[in-house]
Amino acid sequence: MKSYIKLSLYYLVLGCILTISSCGTKKYDALIVTGQSNKSHHWKASHNAVKQIINNTGLFSVDVVISPEQGADMSSFTPDFKSYDVVIIDYDGDPWPNTTQTNFEEYVKNGGGVVVFHGTNNSFPQWEAFNQMTALGGWKGRTEKDGPYVRWENGKIIKDNSPGKGGTHGKKTPFVIDTRAPQHPIMKGLPMKSMHATDELYGKLRGPAENMNVLATAFSNPKTGGTGNHEPILFTVNYGKGRIFHNVLGHVGQDEDMTPYKSAFFIYAMQRGTEWAATGKVTQAIPEDLPNQSSALILPAYKDFTLEDLFRNARKYEIGKSKKYLNLILQRIRNHSTDKDYLEKVEDEMIKLLSADDCTTDAKNFICKEISWLGSPKSISVLKALSKKAETAEMAQFAIRRLQSKN
Ligand code: ZN
Question: What is the Å distance from ligand 1's center to 207 Cα?
Fold first, then answer.
């Protein structure tokens, strides 16, 4: 009984401390809306990958709402958009109920953030406000009645009202993406030319195209069945006080080939674009691994980081630079605050980091503070070694005192 109380108290204190130590990072609330896609797309695969990509920023707490399936009664589908900083739509299917459409329009008009990508711009050809928010869309009977074609020509955007269908793509291929707005927060610091991994390159999209700002384009090569135009790839749209980030990349079909979601360009665009849609700013550091124009950079980041990945990356932390990996570690600890085995694994990783030669002093000092609450007597010997080095002595001695008073 006594040891049970001691353990409960320990976790209570641990919980409080972890809450305090993570106060510096406000989490934004993101909602992914999904549940239907057309036959050539696969919402179950795409929304999970995007969820992981957004989670990996450490900035968002992500919820998912899944609509009724195609053909079912949609009347109960009423997501609470206004509780979120950003709504990410991965959906192409039956119309939403009128009240849901109205709620969404109000949410955006009042300053809500929205992210749409790839097949989502095929959806809702009849919903006028949605088409204003996305600016461009494809297929589903879209023609000149829906708005102009938009392309990049001679250093600027051209709107072309000539008649014809909206939406086409050639064969899947890798292609180069040109940055067109290098000072925009989403693009700032990213390369002027980035190779994107094999994906569909949407062309000849059409729509109202009002209040849109094109951030990046790609040449759609006729050799692979493309349009011969520089097509918009990333753009932002203003609707009322709301901010919309539109990314036309990200094809995944029934074969579940996730290549586009492993492409560094796609990952960075989604991470930065989602933060911008939520807040109007981008605080994420420019990644160390950047794509170049000759070969696509493939990252595993659409998968969940393992605890080992997080600790390996945390070794590079320096004060003033991104705390992303440290924050993700704290988040894991919070999520497993009652799982003794998991916390023991965390302690083992902390001991490894504190013993590593390739770890920064700032990372070691940060972890010393955390291990002082989470650790056990097995941490003391590594802390004693650190207490003999001037740059870590203070934090290591602090941690030793805390651990000794606890045990
Ligand atoms: Zn597609």
Answer: 18
